[in-house]
Design goal:
Belongs to the short-chain dehydrogenases/reductases (SDR) family. The chain is an alpha/beta fold. It is 52% helix and 14% strand. The chain binds NADP nicotinamide-adenine-dinucleotide phosphate. NADP nicotinamide-adenine-dinucleotide phosphate binds next to helix 1 and helix 6.
Length: 256
Amino acid sequence: MSTTLITGSSSGIGLELAKQFAKDGNDVVLVARSEDKLTELAETIRSSFGVRADVIISDLSKPEAVDRLCERLQDRGLEIETLVNNAGFGALGKFTELSADRQTDMLMVNVVALTRLTRQLLPQMIERGSGGILNVGSIAAYQAGPNMAVYYASKAYVLSFTEGLREEVKGTGVHVTCLEPGPTESGFGDDSGMGRLDMFSKSTMSALDVAKAGYRGYRNNEDIVIPGWQNRLMVTSTSFLPRIVTRKIVARMQGV
Ligand SMILES: NC(=O)c1ccc[n+]([C@@H]2O[C@H](COP(=O)([O-])OP(=O)(O)OC[C@H]3O[C@@H](n4cnc5c(N)ncnc54)[C@H](OP(=O)(O)O)[C@@H]3O)[C@@H](O)[C@H]2O)c1
């Protein structure tokens, strides 16, 4: 029986990814800040799929969070076969108007915790010659995002980091995949403020469909998974346009 740790599994894409892994017979470790939601999900997973579901409460914006989380794994004797770095959030607004703390927390969760957790867990996967990392990025990775500059930059990091790692572990038996969702129905739209933009609300996919695509892509050891033809079309057309054009389009869509 293998164990999958999913960060940000209290809602949205992470919750659906946790169910996908559990449905396939994997034990799961659910990580986020919302204790009630994780406890309820763990109960649902245990009763629906008959697998073990552990809950670890962690605020990944805190510098010591990843090390504490790994200590808890060790205390419970949990060996992680698959790590899903899904926790993340965004904030719509000008860099100088959004709070410095919120943007720093964003980098801590979207970038630093993802990197440190990978550094902690990947060596054991390479040693075992199995398992892997599924990082949740975004189609925001492919261009700059005026009015959401830190979020877009954080997702560009996730894509670049994942691709770099993938080449490094080639031939070890370890999978490394980046899931790049476009607008998705979850807590993200309201929390970030993006939900009120036309570009977001008119083209959302369900979190379940995004998770299914991510799970399948990870199992098949695909490098990058972009769910939905509209999102794939957007990313492809971005690659043909000069960066000055793409950032101006995003600036207009995001109300600069
Ligand atoms: N929805 C979209 O349109 C979209 C598009 C592209 C990419 N994504 C990416 O998809 C991933 C999942 O987001 P989602 O759409 O499913 O949004 P969501 O429903 O808001 O879920 C975000 C998850 O991250 C967790 N999280 C946030 N801050 C955290 C912290 N400080 N410590 C620990 N966990 C934290 C939340 O749990 P708690 O609040 O319980 O801590 C929650 O479980 C994110 O990386 C996001 O950037 C989303």
